[in-house]
Amino acid sequence: MRLDKFLCKSTDFTRVESIDLIEARKVRVNGIVIVTPQAQVHENNSIMLAGQRLIARPSRYIMLHKPMNTLCSNVDGDYPSVMNYLHMDRAEDLHITGRLDADTTGLLLLTDDGRWSFNIINPKYHCEKTYRVTLRDPIEEGDIDELVSRFEQGLQLQGEKSLTLAAKLEVIASHQVLLTLCEGRYHQVKRMFFTVGNRVVGLHRQQVGKLSLDIELGEWRYLTEDEVSGFNCYESVI
Ligand code: URA
């Protein structure tokens, strides 16, 4: 990680304060003064600030059951931010791994580990996200096969250059489907159904990778080590 980030993760200094300290020649990495805040360091390096060895706090990995009418942002806006549900120190250091719309409920992941998030969000790594979708109009029995195949082949969303990647659609009732995607374009699920002439009236994310939502609305929990490392298995398919 970057040296300035390492300082933030191991002290109470802000990013700006960390950069000032580095530029003021106060930080040594493996005995050498480093003045570049962007320098890459590893946690195993000996990183000293004014003669004291720094140890990075462990990264945090959190599942939150996002309620309706909450914002995936670090600050409140038209609705309260989901951060209000996390009563913990340094909640502001966390970022959201794959945002949901204000009116979407379900599985939200938060972390302070950017590399881990990248594995989950980047379509290249093919990490599946499953949504339970409630539709305005019923899907007729006779239309199911064609619809499944359109989602599988990719849809041309308005204003997008490329087709959506192959998506799995499973019809579970006339107005309800499960949709599994491995990308997350802006309002993607809503726009996909708009493209096929329907409307989404309810959206809930129930699974990301192998991780299923298993807590009540508004609750959060830390992921287990196995759950965290389960996301590191995604390999690039492109
Ligand atoms: N697709 C949407 O349209 N909204 C979400 O919140 C997530 C996926």
TrEMBL record:
Keyword rRNA-binding assigned: no
Keyword Ribosomal protein tagged: no
Protein EC: 5.4.99.-
GO MF assignments: 16S rRNA pseudouridine(516) synthase activity; RNA binding
Domain RNA-binding S4 residue range list: 1-60
Highest taxon above the source species: Bacteria
Pfam family, one: PseudoU_synth_2
Gene Ontology biological process terms from the UniProt entry: enzyme-directed rRNA pseudouridine synthesis
Stored InterPro entries: PsdUridine_s_RsuA/RluB/E/F_cat, PsdUridine_synth_cat_dom_sf, PsdUridine_synth_RsuA/RluA, PsdUridine_synth_RsuA/RluB/E/F, PsdUridine_synth_RsuA/RluB_CS, RsuA_PseudoU_synthase, S4_RNA-bd, S4_RNA-bd_sf
Protein family membership: Belongs to the pseudouridine synthase RsuA family.
PANTHER family noted in UniProt: PSEUDOURIDINE SYNTHASE, PSEUDOURIDINE SYNTHASE FAMILY PROTEIN-RELATED
Protein name (record): Pseudouridine synthase
Organism: Shewanella benthica
